[in-house]
Structure to design on (1374 residues):
């Protein structure tokens, strides 16, 4: 009974989210391309296309949370206005079935429709509303090769009336014939200043009391991914608001939410591996003595028991090593190699305990050499 | 059959024994009316699912414990019919991806869509949303994770997702960034001893501190294992005094013998013997990752210091190979032979240990 | 299915060989009956029917089955009818299970003997096709139908429902007794259907003994899916799937396993049929060589041999050219038969393995048994092959003499894909190594190739076959020490099957634990259910100790727990109805030490011994439980047991 859909209440609350519960990521999506943070070059080019209303096929790629989806959605909104947006834009992402069958049916059907005449906009504004439709394929790198192949033909055949925008993280996973048909835009990781200004804008809109120091922690913890930092901010404000009495957000909260390993834990771990906290000259003999295999294994075991995620430990250890003032370049290079291999292993399903231990042992060896 | 570990599991947030701060946080979230998607992660046996259950109860009241199991039929893209047992209450539904194997995407998509299109029927319900609990989320396929990604934002109005995972490394970043991360660390020794004593008290016997210590050492932060061992010990020697030996499970003893075989002899004949044993372990469904970790743990205890790092290195190396490949035995065997080879050369001739470096 | 493939193969070859003579009307042949109608109509009236059907055995003399098996089946039937010598056996003769490869005469034996003993056959037909086409019939209805059928069969002991299926089984007039034949199973690989089916069988045994039941199981072997899948994904289809474990040892069930048909028996049977055909006109006697080849290549499958025979006669008949040209056609025939049987492929695998594993290189010491002339010849051949350019010093360890193996040629001839091939190499490589370092190199190659190109966004690595072959060649010693190595079939699939069984038992146990706690849940103070239930890993790695401790408190250990007994017992400490728990516990670890490379089944390249059945290209990892064809004596005698000897 739980699972049976209710008797059709047509359009009753069709996924309309209470604005208070809406994810801030959605709520504060840029409305126009001018609101896009940090992607000046791309925005400049797109603004031109907005004026000439001629659009090539687009391919947006770059790391997560850099505004790729936001950009194309804002652009489409500016092109068509709310009245025509619905029938001119088709957005598909990886959670929709996107096998070759869907490409053949749904995408093709939409692509070959002649665009309907533009309806007058209700809000009184004038939109360019060019005579073509846009199909947005979000997360296009998760489409199968076959599906991408089928897309290629559709793109050519209906180019006059339909433009495609592929959005993906890894441009190398888009088959070459598709990529070559698109204008490619690379989205850079956001600079921390623009993330910071966006975050403080949101926090003031939401009346969240948060200090600049905490915001800076947020930015650091999310590594240039704006979506992540906004999500963390929302989670943190939720937590803070739900305690009785409400407390301001602290850096500790933010770090815990982001799953960051506390500094003292990482520093202790690092010193076991022979990375001295800072400044002091390295005493290799000393460190080897207190860093036998068993002690490293014990340290790793404790770390894993605490439940910290392997990728997180890795990235913090990486930052610590690479920024370290006294390690030699050669030592850092060796360590970097280890970190790279471990990162790959984690992507391929490497066991956390085994690989954290492996990393620790090899870093230790690299530093001792 | 009721196991102590099930019988004495805390059912409400108030009765949880440790991680008080985390408990307070969960209680606050449950009462705030602004409940997010959550991802519980931490080592096995730390109490993730217990906390999930308590949170659910805090959200919905005792009604959430009224469970029923339905058999549902799903249709795979290849038109194959798939029977899945779905556990649910009026307020939540549970999915275990490993039960559905490679078809997890289909099942998850179907269930989430249905829930999203359903309004809460129970007028007395404390919350307007239903919760989907996905346990063992680290075994979700990439496809299924991609499918979850957008759905989590889209259906926020009447559905929340709680994911449970031992490790977050296999989860894609977009999922992690859409969830509130809840880290559940393993209990420390004091906390474990408190839990063990609590159970002993309820079973009306005294747990000698020495026995408790023994069990805690053996369980390595895994409270579930500790409680199972406690019950087993109590059953085997009711007074729990004197020298206790915690019997290792069969498979663990087997792994240890295997490790010893590797060090005794390094010949092609021995390779064949070991292969038979490895096959036997695999045939008993012992997870290959567990096999390689157990054997390597035993090995490093018995080899010379310079070899230890190499044993671990190759264990890690071939563990990933197992994930990438399809025939586990190839990789396990390759690792065993590598260790044999290293061990042999370490004793008899040139040192080959540095060959993976640079 | 095998049959339809065969027919299709025939067709292709016929079209190729004699395009003028043949006018195919319908290319798609499906199953026995359909396949019979289209085909090649040339001049004779009888050509539109398959010999397999025309010459279906009518009497015991026609059966090409070994006497002992016939007697076994007959005795069972007689005992089921009359109760044996002292009349007491009747109640034990409830279910007869016949197992064996396809085409060895299981069904024919039953039909002939049932007729002889005065039984009428009532046969279960599966509506499986409708089911598979995704109609709205779910599995339940099929298994319910089966249940209903069994019940009906039970109580309609007099009423005869047998419809003569292909003309071979005709019910006797006024049969006093009825027998139920189940050959076409419901979709038993589905766990739900399977348990329903098992329940039907158990219920059948519990009911009063009226009608005996015969189940025929063709060992279709196991489609080895090396990737882990859900438990219903297992494709094992053998007697253990069909009978509930508790019944396997039951006295009410008799199992008789059929072996592949011995070549002498097969020859006799085939000759008889050919003679009949020749005398009825039209057909020509195939040459002895052709006959030998057909018999040998059929692997003891008389149905396939008969198909080949009919085909051969069709070709011969079509040729009205002078003798000279006939010989050419005769050669074509050989080629054609080789094309439609799998002999060549099987041999190819054997040679392929040998070529790689013996790693012959230039400069190997000559074979001790070879004559002087052979040696000279060989040396000459080698002189033509250039030595590879030596590698630079730092790679000197990788220098090898020129290899005799032409990898491209091997690849072109190979009938297996790299995945299966690597399993065969894995099973056998150790015997060819002199020390662990060599083993290490080979196994590293196997591991490396297995792990390459599995990801969904990549194309599968197209060079796997080359990589694995060249890697193994490079790593093996040169020359390989000869110690009369034998080649074995991979154990992999047996182990995979075992692990599937274990997994099923473990999942059962877990579900049972789940339901247990659910049952107590109605009580508000009862045990709360574990969210998400027990995880598989926790069940496997953590729960065993406690369950064993509880069992031993019951005064027994899982080692002594006899199958069939635990299900019936009440175990207060474990709980009621815990068959699953005990089934899982009944899977102890084997401690037996391995003995050499001999865990697999041996492959031999001996004229008399069948080579293993090797999959066609489209069936990636398909192995088939193949019984070796034992050396036949004049009687066409049998060795017991259809497994190849375990060495």
């Amino acid at each position: 009974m739980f699972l049976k859909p209710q008797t059709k209440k047509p359009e009753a609350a069709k996924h309309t989210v209470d604005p208070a519960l809406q994810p801030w990521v959605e709520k504060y999506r840029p409305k126009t391309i001018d609101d896009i943070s940090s992607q000046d070059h791309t925005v400049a080019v797109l603004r031109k296309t907005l004026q000439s209303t001629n659009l090539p096929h687009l391919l947006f790629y770059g790391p997560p949370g850099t505004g790729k989806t936001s950009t194309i959605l804002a652009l489409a909104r500016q092109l068509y206005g709310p009245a025509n947006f619905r029938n001119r834009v088709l957005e598909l992402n990886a959670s929709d079935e996107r096998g070759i069958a869907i490409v053949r049916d749904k995408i093709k059907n939409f692509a070959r429709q002649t665009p309907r005449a533009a309806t007058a906009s209700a809000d009184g504004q004038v939109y360019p509303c060019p005579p073509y439709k846009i199909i947005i394929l979000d997360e296009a790198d998760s489409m199968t090769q076959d599906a991408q192949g089928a897309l290629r033909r559709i793109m050519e055949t209906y180019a006059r009336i339909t433009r495609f925008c592929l959005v993906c993280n890894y441009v190398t996973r888009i088959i070459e014939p598709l990529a070559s048909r698109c204008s490619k835009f690379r989205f850079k990781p956001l600079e921390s200043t623009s993330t910071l200004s966006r975050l403080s804008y949101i926090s003031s809109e939401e009346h969240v009391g948060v200090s600049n120091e905490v915001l800076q922690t947020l930015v650091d913890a999310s590594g240039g991914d704006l979506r992540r930092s906004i999500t963390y901010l929302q989670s943190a404000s939720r937590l803070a608001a739900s305690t009785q009495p409400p407390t301001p957000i602290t850096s500790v909260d933010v770090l815990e939410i982001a799953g960051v390993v506390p500094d003292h834990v990482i520093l202790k771990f690092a010193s076991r591996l022979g990375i001295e906290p800072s400044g002091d000259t390295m005493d290799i003999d000393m460190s080897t003595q207190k860093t036998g295999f068993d002690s490293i294994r014990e340290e790793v075991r404790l770390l894993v028991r605490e439940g910290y995620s392997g990728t997180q430990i890795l990235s913090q250890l990486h930052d610590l090593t690479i920024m370290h003032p006294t390690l030699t370049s050669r030592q850092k290079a060796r360590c970097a190699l280890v970190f790279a291999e471990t990162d790959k292993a984690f992507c391929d399903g490497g066991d956390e305990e085994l690989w954290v231990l492996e990393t620790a042992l090899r870093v230790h060896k690299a530093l001792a050499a | 059959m009721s196991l102590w570990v099930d019988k004495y599991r805390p059912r409400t947030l108030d009765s949880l024994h440790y991680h008080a701060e985390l408990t307070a946080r969960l209680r606050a979230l449950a009462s705030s009316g602004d409940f997010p998607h959550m991802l519980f992660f931490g080592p096995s046996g730390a109490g993730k699912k217990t906390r999930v259950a308590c949170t659910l109860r805090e959200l919905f009241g005792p009604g959430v414990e009224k469970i029923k199991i339905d058999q549902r039929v799903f249709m795979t893209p290849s038109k194959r019919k798939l029977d899945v047992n779905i556990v649910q209450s009026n307020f939540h539904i549970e999915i275990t991806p490993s039960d559905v194997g490679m078809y997890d995407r289909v099942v998850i998509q179907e269930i989430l869509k249905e829930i999203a299109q359903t309004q809460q029927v129970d007028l007395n319900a404390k919350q307007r949303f239903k919760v989907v609990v996905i346990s063992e989320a680290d075994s979700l396929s990439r496809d299924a994770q991609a499918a979850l990604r957008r759905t989590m934002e889209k259906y926020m109005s009447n559905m929340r997702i709680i994911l449970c995972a031992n490790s977050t490394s296999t989860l894609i970043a977009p999922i992690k960034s859409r969830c509130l991360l809840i880290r559940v660390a393993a209990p420390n020794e004091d906390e474990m001893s408190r839990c063990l004593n609590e159970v002993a008290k309820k079973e009306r016997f005294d747990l000698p501190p020495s026995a408790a210590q023994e069990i805690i050492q053996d369980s390595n932060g895994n409270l579930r294992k500790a409680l199972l061992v406690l019950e087993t010990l109590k059953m085997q020697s009711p007074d729990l005094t004197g020298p206790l030996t915690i019997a290792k499970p069969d498979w663990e003893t087997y792994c240890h013998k295997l490790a010893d075989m590797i060090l005794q002899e390094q010949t092609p004949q021995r390779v064949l013997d070991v292969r038979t044993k490895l096959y036997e372990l695999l045939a008993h469904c012992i997870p290959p990752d567990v096999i390689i970790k157990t054997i390597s743990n035993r090995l490093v205890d018995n080899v010379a210091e310079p070899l230890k790092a190499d044993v671990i290195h190759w264990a890690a190396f071939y563990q990933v190979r197992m994930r990438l490949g399809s025939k586990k035995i190839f990789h396990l065997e390759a690792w065993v032979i590598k260790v044999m080879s290293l061990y042999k050369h370490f004793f008899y001739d040139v040192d080959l240990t540095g060959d993976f470096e640079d | 299915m095998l049959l339809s493939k065969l027919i299709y193969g025939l067709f292709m070859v016929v079209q190729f060989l004699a395009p003028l003579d043949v006018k195919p009307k319908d290319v798609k042949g499906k199953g026995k009956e359909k396949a019979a109608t289209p085909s090649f109509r040339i001049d004779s009236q009888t050509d539109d029917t398959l010999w397999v059907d025309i010459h279906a055995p009518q009497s015991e003399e026609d059966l090409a089955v070994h006497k002992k098996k016939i007697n076994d089946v007959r005795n069972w039937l007689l005992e089921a009818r009359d109760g044996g010598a002292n009349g007491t056996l009747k109640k034990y003769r409830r279910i007869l299970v016949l197992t064996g490869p396809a085409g060895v005469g299981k069904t024919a034996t039953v039909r002939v003997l049932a007729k002889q003993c005065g039984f009428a056959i009532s046969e279960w037909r599966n509506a499986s096709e409708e089911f598979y086409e995704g109609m709205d019939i779910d599995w339940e209805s099929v298994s319910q139908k089966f249940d209903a059928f069994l019940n009906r069969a039970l109580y309609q002991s007099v009423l005869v429902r047998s419809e003569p299926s292909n003309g071979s089984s005709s019910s006797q007039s006024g049969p006093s007794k009825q027998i139920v034949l189940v050959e076409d199973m419901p979709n038993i690989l589905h766990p739900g259907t399977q348990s329903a089916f098992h329940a039907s069988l158990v219920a059948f045994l519990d009911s009063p003994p009226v009608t005996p039941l015969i189940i025929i199981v063709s060992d279709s072997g196991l489609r080895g899916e090396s990737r882990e899948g859900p438990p219903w994904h297992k494709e094992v289809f053998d007697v253990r799937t069909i009978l509930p474990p508790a019944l396997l040892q039951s006295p009410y069930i008799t199992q008789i396993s059929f072996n592949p048909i011995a070549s002498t028996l097969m020859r006799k049977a085939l000759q008889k049929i050919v003679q009949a055909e020749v005398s009825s006109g039209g057909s020509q006697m195939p040459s002895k060589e052709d006959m030998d080849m057909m018999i040998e290549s059929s692997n003891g499958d008389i149905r396939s041999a008969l198909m080949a025979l009919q085909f051969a006669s069709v070709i011969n008949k079509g040729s009205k050219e002078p003798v000279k040209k006939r010989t050419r056609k005769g050669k074509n025939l050989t080629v054609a038969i080789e094309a439609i049987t799998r002999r060549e492929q099987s041999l190819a695998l054997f040679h392929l393995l040998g070529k790689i594993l013996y790693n012959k290189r230039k400069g190997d010491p000559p074979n001790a048994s070879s004559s002087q002339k052979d040696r000279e010849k060989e040396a000459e051949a080698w002189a033509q092959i250039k030595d590879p350019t030596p590698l630079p010093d730092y790679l000197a360890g990788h220098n090898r003499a020129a290899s005799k193996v032409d990898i491209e040629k091997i690849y072109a001839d190979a009938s297996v894909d790299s995945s299966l091939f690597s399993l065969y190499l894995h099973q056998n490589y150790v015997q060819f190594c002199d020390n662990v370092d060599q083993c290490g190199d080979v196994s590293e190659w196997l591991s490396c190739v297995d792990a390459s190109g599995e990801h969904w966004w990549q194309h599968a690595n197209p060079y796997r076959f080359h990589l694995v072959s060249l890697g193994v060649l490079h790593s093996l010693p040169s020359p390989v020490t000869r110690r009369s190595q034998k080649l074995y079939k991979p154990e992999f699939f047996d182990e995979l099957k075992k692990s599937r069984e274990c997994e099923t038992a473990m999942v059962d146990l877990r579900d049972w634990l789940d339901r247990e706690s659910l049952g107590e849940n109605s009580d508000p103070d009862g045990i709360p259910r574990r969210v998400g239930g027990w995880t598989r890993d926790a069940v496997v790695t953590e729960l065993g100790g406690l369950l064993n401790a509880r069992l031993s408190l019951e005064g027994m250990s899982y080692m002594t727990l006899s199958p069939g007994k635990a299900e019936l017992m009440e175990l207060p400490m474990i709980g009621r109805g815990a068959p699953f728990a005990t089934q899982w516990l009944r899977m102890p670890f084997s401690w037996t030490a391995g003995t050499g490379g001999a865990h697999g089944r041996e492959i031999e390249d001996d004229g008399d011994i069948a080579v293993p059945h090797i999959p066609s290209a489209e069936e990636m990892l398909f192995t088939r439980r193949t019984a070796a064809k034992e050396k036949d004596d004049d009687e066409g005698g049998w060795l017991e047991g259809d497994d190849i000897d375990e060495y």
Q: What stands out?
A: The radius of gyration of chain C is 29 Å.
